[in-house]
């Protein structure tokens, strides 16, 4: 029995070992990437171009003027007819 044969055998050299190790790393990286992609898809965590979560469709954002108008109506400074009239005017001129 030769010294080289007692542990790994003659058929495996450093080149094959490096190749097999590299392939195993690539395989596990692909498995992990597939799992992460599947979880993100199933969780519905879509992001917009800013990296923020997409918001569900809702009413258009209020302008500062609409917020002030709503606050004045809530405090009782203006009547409902005036509130509705001014709000429709603001929304027409967006």
TrEMBL record:
Residues 45-71 are annotated as: Disordered. The keyword Membrane applies. The chain crosses the membrane at residues 17-39. Keywords: Membrane, Transmembrane, Transmembrane helix. This is SHOCT domain-containing protein. It comes from Gordonia mangrovi. The lineage of its organism: Bacteria, Bacillati, Actinomycetota, Actinomycetes, Mycobacteriales.
